[in-house]
Amino acid sequence: MAGEIGRKTDHWGSRFGFIMAAVGSSVGLGNFWRFPFTAGENGGGAFIIIYLFCVLFLGLTVLMAEYAVGRKSGMSAIEGIHSLARAESKSENWQVVGWIGSLGAFFILTFYIVISAWVLAFIPQAFGGTFNGFAAEAARLTAETGSTVSIADVSAGNFGETISNKYMIGGLLVAFLLANVIVVARGVKGGIEKAATVLMPAFFILLIGIVGFALIEGDAGAAADFLLTPDFSEVTMGTFLEAVGQAFFSLSVGSCLMVTYGAYLSRDTNIPRASAIVASADTMVALIAGFAIFPIVFAFGADPAGGPGLFFVSMPIAFSQMGALGVWVGGAFFLLALFAAFTSSISLMEVGVAWLEEREGVTRPGAAMGIGFVLFMIGMGYVYSTDFIDFADIITGNIMLPLCALLLAVFAGWILSREMLTTELGEGTIMNLWRFMCRWVVPPALAFILVLGTLTKLGVI
Q1: Most exposed among 181, 203, 294, 362, judged by the fewest C-beta atoms under 10 Å?
Q2: Residue 133 above 90 pLDDT?
């Protein structure tokens, strides 16, 4: 009946399935599209040190809080936080935390699906040998125009031409969205978990293959120097904000996604251990992705600080210079990115679907189709005006996710009693350390970074 709210009846089929789904939600385009160019623009190794600090001391704490709140309530993020606040006789307005996170997840997905459509468009280009024709095209244009046209110019032109084909990108967006709707409509165990247990092992096999090739054929020394040697001259308060945003974007915390996943957790899952596994796997993939991309970038003279274009412009330049081998390596690279994008997008969609199914009494397929339609309408707006993607990325990654994480840490550390969460996190050293972090470290650190980082971004300081 519409309006009835209750605990989730669907659960993960196994701990392995949950870990694969949770890692799949974390390992996405944040690792392959966002992490490399963000590191490249913010001092390489210096950014990575700050990023690792954010994951270990901020991200892991909030991740544990999200799982604990989710399993304790057994509900979607908005309703779960509302019910726990009510159980503690605290203001029901705390549900705003769930709204900020859930809306953040939704708005991330609005541009995520567009970038995923770009990835889909590049897969047939890679396997079809389009990149291999860049050199010949550059020579032809140079001869025709009388001015030098580089391979980089051709690759940038190819990217611009690809994303300007509105009908093709729109069609690919629809295909990607339909796949999301079908999987999410089948439920947690029969849809999301099943997809993750197939796609994530395939993802790791492809990743190992790409890294092996990059280290052998690329400039591994230059990549290691860039990724492991910190250049603190590039660091500003804006770098800290970028690192926090990247850590939370990549870990899928601050979007209440893990609150939603926590609602499906069985009692025999150890939350601290599961959180450590997910955070470690996601961080390792982000770093490994750097060693999959930057050896190729440096070996073939691409710009490591090339911004978002690093993924769609610089990498195809490198593949274009590998000959026949570049066809398969390039194709595998974008296929890898597609797997990562899909496992993350289905989890982002689940946040809204779980709430609609629970709160409004909508069937799961109906909720998935309804959200899919709204995403299509907004996504097509991005297709016709890509400038909004950067704006949405900044608002969600640099403001909404850290803000939600800050409020969630306050909620878990100060509003919920220790006794309420002991059943989820256990008693002893881990609980003591986690509660101390939630109360005294995460909120002030995030508040400081949010305020000063935002002012730096706006050019105020």
Answers
A1: 362
A2: yes
